[in-house]
Amino acid sequence: MSVPVSDVILRTDSVTKQFGGFTALKNISTSFQRGAITSIIGPNGAGKSTYFNLLSGALKPTNGKVFFNDRDVTGVAQHRFAKLGIAKSFQITSVFPLLTTHENIRVSAQALVTCFDMFSPRANMKDLDETADELLKTVGLCDRRDRLAGELAHGEQRALEIAMALASRPSLLLLDEPTAGMSPEETKSMMDLIVALGKERTIILVEHKMKFVLGISDRLLVLHHGELLAEGTPDEIRRNEVVKRVYLGQREH
Amino acid sequence: MTLSTLAHAPATALQRHPLYAKLKSHRVLLAALFLVVFPFLLPLKAVAVNILIYGLYAVGFNLLFGYLGLLSFGHSALFGTGAYLCGIAIAHFGLPWWAALIIGTISGTLMAALMGVIVVRTRGIYFAMVTMALSQCVYYVFYQATSWTGGENGLRGINISTLNLFGLKINFLDPLTRYYVVAALVVGALWFLSRILASPFGAVLEAVRENESRARASGYNIDRVRLVAFTLSGAFCGLAGALQAIHLAIVPIETLHYDTSGLAVMMCLLGGMGTFFGPFVGAGLFLLLENIVSIWTVHWQLFVGAVFMGCVLFLPQGVWGTILKRLER
What we know:
Chain A folds into 2 domains: 169 residues, Rossmann fold; 74 residues, no CATH class. Chain A is 34% helix and 25% strand. Chain A has 9 helices and 10 strands.
């Protein structure tokens, strides 16, 4: 079976999200390039997280559709996204705190293989162990292998979460504020990790701190008051007068 | 405090000790050895069988409560269905004991699957309430089906005096022999449980317990995991019920009453939920207290209730859970 590989990996077709009477997102139509790192930025309350949750399937749009590889994935159950090849990390660190770092990744990788096998010992699944060890290396947590995830430092937990997302071998990786709450050094190494991962897969990330993502993104989307204010390359966004006014003019950037 | 932090302390030096791992991997064998001498350690030998049966029931309940954090108030339906169907197989159809036990186990499993389909979408208090409501429905069905179940009078005529095992005749009326037969089956069930917990599905149970939304994002269908766990829980409770039926030779209608559901919750909390042996320890404590205190007062429930409250307040990890924690220091 040959799948026509188009340049667009993910597309939203005039998606709108309302919570009660409040419209969090209005009519957003855009597409995301395969192989690129795209950042979604915007001031607080711009609708970034809502948009992220629509992309990752955690929320269903009130109107409009989401297409992944030209397939309509609007309203597809969340657990199916991993099998489609979309993985995500959460805005608030989300790991299995009382399992070891290695087991966190191993059980995430297991989802692709089996869920209900209750007769074979899990220790037999050597390839999952190896996958987990490889990913520990990728995110630089080898020396934390047998520590409980809950005992790790914040930055390490964020890295672990990315390894867990990678365990499902995604073609699209969605990261919700991957550097939230990180020290400058941790932020730097997270950005390096994202750039390295971006060489092999498509990455979409939501970020509040614009200055960090300008350097690593191929494209940016700027949201403001639930609307798509601008999109383009980092240079275009830097030069955009409207963006400057609503975003860069603020004290925090 | 979440359920998981209550039930599972972080791994300590002891847990990483090789001997601990070794003991843990042979826990079913250790349990079997213990059960051989268990009746002789008890002040009342007759309680031993009851402890085994209710212990197994609580183990089945714990699979859901302790390992997935789902509090069911309807497990009497699973225990009772196992008991009634096993009893009916013997009393009405004259089936051999082993076939009746299998039927009891399967019917508990099916009842759990049926209830599970309805309840797995609900959470928290709704889960507890819906399971309880469903178990009341089951209660009335069995209560009304008098010609099959004996209704209010209970199901009688489950008379088994000898067990025929490949030509070997076992005298089931001898209390100690009966104990060892039940113990053998309970050990078998524990072995099965131990395998499940060590399997890939066991890993999924841990993951769901630890962080449901992360497990979902990893690609696990949470509702289906819950349904399978509920169904498995029904297998253990159904077997416990079936054993109860052949042990008592009667199935009282109270077996299906929600008191019986509450019993599982109490035993689990007393012993330590989410631990492998906790439900057994809880069942043992509860039944021993009941039997000893009721010798000198009819108000035994008052004392058991006080002990229970004491446990909840001062030993929130249960007796076994607390012992494990002390050992780990």
